[in-house]
Design goal:
The structure is a homotetramer of 339-residue chains. Chain A has 339 residues and is α/β, with parallel strands linked by helices. In chain A, 38% of the residues lie in helices and 23% in strands. The first copy, chain A, folds into two domains: 4-127 and 278-307, NAD(P)-binding Rossmann-like Domain (Rossmann fold, 3-Layer(aba) Sandwich), CATH 3.40.50; 144-268 and 325-337, Dihydrodipicolinate Reductase, domain 2. Chains A, B, C, D: Homotetramer.
Chain lengths: 339, 339, 339, 339
Amino acid sequence: MSDLRIAVLGVGMMGADHVARIGSKIAGARVTVVNDYLTEKAETLAATIPGCRAIADPLDAIADADVDAVLLATPGTTHEKQLLACLEHGKPVMCEKPLTTDVATSLEVVKREAELGKRLIQVGFMRRFDAEYVALKTLLTDGELGTPLVMHCVHRNAEVPPNFDSSMIVKDSLVHEVDVTRFLFDEEITSIQVIKPAANPNAPQGLQDPQIAIFQTASGKHVDVEVFVTTGVAYEVRTEVVGERGSAMIGLDVGLVRKSAPGHWGGQITPSFKERFGLAYDVEIQRWVDAVRSGVNVDGPGAWDGYAAAAVCAAGVASLESGLPVAVEMVSRESITGA
Amino acid sequence: MSDLRIAVLGVGMMGADHVARIGSKIAGARVTVVNDYLTEKAETLAATIPGCRAIADPLDAIADADVDAVLLATPGTTHEKQLLACLEHGKPVMCEKPLTTDVATSLEVVKREAELGKRLIQVGFMRRFDAEYVALKTLLTDGELGTPLVMHCVHRNAEVPPNFDSSMIVKDSLVHEVDVTRFLFDEEITSIQVIKPAANPNAPQGLQDPQIAIFQTASGKHVDVEVFVTTGVAYEVRTEVVGERGSAMIGLDVGLVRKSAPGHWGGQITPSFKERFGLAYDVEIQRWVDAVRSGVNVDGPGAWDGYAAAAVCAAGVASLESGLPVAVEMVSRESITGA
Amino acid sequence: MSDLRIAVLGVGMMGADHVARIGSKIAGARVTVVNDYLTEKAETLAATIPGCRAIADPLDAIADADVDAVLLATPGTTHEKQLLACLEHGKPVMCEKPLTTDVATSLEVVKREAELGKRLIQVGFMRRFDAEYVALKTLLTDGELGTPLVMHCVHRNAEVPPNFDSSMIVKDSLVHEVDVTRFLFDEEITSIQVIKPAANPNAPQGLQDPQIAIFQTASGKHVDVEVFVTTGVAYEVRTEVVGERGSAMIGLDVGLVRKSAPGHWGGQITPSFKERFGLAYDVEIQRWVDAVRSGVNVDGPGAWDGYAAAAVCAAGVASLESGLPVAVEMVSRESITGA
Amino acid sequence: MSDLRIAVLGVGMMGADHVARIGSKIAGARVTVVNDYLTEKAETLAATIPGCRAIADPLDAIADADVDAVLLATPGTTHEKQLLACLEHGKPVMCEKPLTTDVATSLEVVKREAELGKRLIQVGFMRRFDAEYVALKTLLTDGELGTPLVMHCVHRNAEVPPNFDSSMIVKDSLVHEVDVTRFLFDEEITSIQVIKPAANPNAPQGLQDPQIAIFQTASGKHVDVEVFVTTGVAYEVRTEVVGERGSAMIGLDVGLVRKSAPGHWGGQITPSFKERFGLAYDVEIQRWVDAVRSGVNVDGPGAWDGYAAAAVCAAGVASLESGLPVAVEMVSRESITGA
């Protein structure tokens, strides 16, 4: 079996990271084409990889005969066109979140894939590949907590880039908890409320941080999420599921425990998402590569998942403005698949 | 200095526990009078305690010349009359929660005490005496977390008595988090929302359990509380405060950690409130005894705190019905103290 | 039942602490006599306690008609004479460790008590009253770990007084692990080896610190102890028992857990033995008071336990010099009790 | 750069695992030759790997023109001859422990590699690649604990194969702590003592389990190790280093923490070494592949490390018999390198 030939579109921080990962950690795959709107950047990178070319036009890159599959790390606004091109060429595509930047185009992408009758799109919700989330999912699937009833999530960053605004907290941060909820509970979120506590004095002027989100799911489960992106402390992601027969928590940040004068004990909190989920990214890419090469349909999060996330986030932004619960509007999955 | 002579009114589970505590753990105090609406029960108990009599009428018990101070463990509906009698006789009284069973009578009690110009009433919020809560309070007072912004609370019971109804979850369970919020943040709760997730299948028919309560405080701090009283697991009380310079959590239930076949590690969760807060009860009573004997005014939670709790709970019950945020209505403290 | 009248002999740090404890935390007891070789110190203290006198001669204090029981917190060298006086007067005595300062006199005390046919002496091994040790003991008694095989102990102090020498590490520190071993395993220690690692550069000149002690018990159980008294960190006491069906550990110093910038999490280690075992001291004294007042023989650690500790420590000091295993020499218990 | 062509010698459990790893997780490498003394087994395996042949004679496999490097997972008794063949052909070799089965042949191998003046051999001490051990090493290197003084290690298996004997506990289990000690402290072990507690009643007849090993290092550091291979519980590896400025512990087995009725909390202990160190194996192999392909000398544990381990284990087996401390005999490293 020959290596999977991948085109990586967008070689900013995330895309370049994926290029390096494929080259150094992923068996059975190699990057044959790179593309970026900064042409020179792509060319410089291509020159460092044996058998890799830069192609200036993203659609040409997708169409190229030397490309079996596509990894999309371009800005979200360009995803729709690029995803549709991948579908047109029948090429599997691994798409970093978001699927697209609004609900309507996300749905359009979902429909076009459904028409093909073949799963080609995977979205980059890497937490599904993290060992702790997998363990928690298994616990739920095995029924060991009984019916899940309530979930508490915490999502904290030490800091965010200067351009980060209040709605990005929903679309870029909270979106992960949206997918976690759907992944763990296997049902859609039907309502979201965003609460705005008094803001952190250290947050940039105008940034509503922290935010508290309340999800209600189809069967009435309650999820609350604290998103706090200017804590100045560290990267902290914690999830507790409370079920009818017990509860379980992940993300306690334990590990090396140290004692030192004067009278302290403790450890180091994961400094950033790279350390926390680096292995999850590896597993994610490798499974996708393996699935694609073997011809078996990928089973990671798909276009529908990207669409659902977009729908919930749109409602979340609305609730952020109104302060009230906002119903999530989604078409039924059956209307797409015809099943 | 001679021993403090205490009348214990109400010798059901809680009252009998206090009688035993005073006899065996509390220096400088003794029970000289017991009272219960079940006369025989009080007499039987009195017979076991040297120098102790049963008095049939609670008001007579309060007035008795052999009584320096009163401990009230009677049903909440009788508190108002008994508290006023204590005030009339100028006798210090330690009153188990609630202060009274509604907001109006609570306020009346507060006013009558204020008219005396002397602090005589203490309410039984024993968490203020628990070592972990004290440590958390100290952390906040010392400013080590900066401005507190958000608090997450969990309050779980394995089970509740058969007559426990949905509003008792608010008035008997959530009330503790009400006081914890006021104690830790030193400000009033201005709004409460109670969310009703799909009920625990194992809860008695008609009981809304779990419940999620959202408090907003005067300065805009956010507090969420999971109250879940039919977990079947254990007694779990957990509190996390998130501030501008870090967060802190208490109630993680660690202690003896054990590993056993096949492949498990863990420990025992505190089985009930007696184990969890037994020492706090001791400290509470002892400090009160000491304060009363030395003539220094008591500094534990007072009538105002009982009143504030009643006000918040009333709003909570309203929100439980409407599902919407309900403003808490309270008179200003200045209108009472005249300060 | 009237209060137990206690004479406290020796009112240095430990004795004064006990005097305060009895006055403020212990029900059913009061200090009627205090004694110290610094006469003025005892008189000053007595003046602060209602109904309490200072008596200059310790033997007179023991004999005094106003004394039901004696608490010994005098220097170890004076214990033998004072203990024998207590036995002579048939007065119960709570004796801070050591029982006496050498094996022979300890044995003499054991014999004299045995001749009386009545248990009068309790030795101050307060760990037996600590909740964690009690939980560990219960686990073993209930057979949940099966046969215990190995125990690992850690005993660390941040610092010690300037006069602390290498043998005091054995006699004053390690002695607690000696009693813990005997308490948990219900059998005697038959061999001890003290290993001398390269010394801590921060330890005072000449102090062998840390020390590693290896005990073997009668049935062949292995116990190792790290004693390290100049860590500069905190007071840490940890015990892990490994049995045929699992292991259990106490003393992990968890509690309030805090996260703070830059990227640390952790808590506060118990700063000293007062915080760690304060409650154990209370329980210890109270149980003793109760047992004495009720006329039931005390069941805490007795003279035999003090003797056994002395025997093991003597062997420990010998091993400290030779670096080799040293057999512990003890008479059989049957030779004393005649049973 | 073309893929590294690897011959895997020995395709039992460990070798087959490495073959699978290279095929599915390791970038830049492929298995071109497999060998086993069970010829058919090798042929069956080769048939499943594109471009891979079975070669019946291990020395032919090493010499094969289609082989750049060798991975040795054959029985330890065959290592010497195979390692020398690798050296003769100038081929890098990754050798599973032990280097050879006795001290003399280990030293011979070290010498032959030294004569070549080129580092070709790496030994399979994979803990050096485990994230927690790396974090602990970094802590020590950065001096955050000051001078290390004492180390406590625990090494527990739930069970062992039927043929496991008392000396294998030293040579196959304890050997890892030997390397951990040398890795963390950067100095040789100079003395070892193996203590034999009363055996676990559940251990096979004749197996001395648990065993306690005491190491002393060149500078006088103390290391104790509990090796207990029939716990019936799980795979537990724990290491605590105590230094002059604090202590640090790894291997606490925390992760997903769960609460369940009736009143338990806890998590799952790592079931076996595959889960615990699987990632470490990946990193180990990948770094080795990368180093070999780039022509830079490998920096993992080398032949000298294998020799040192053999020397310590030989002394350990001797102490196992005598029960006394046994000095470790080794030539000086300078006598080999001539430096």
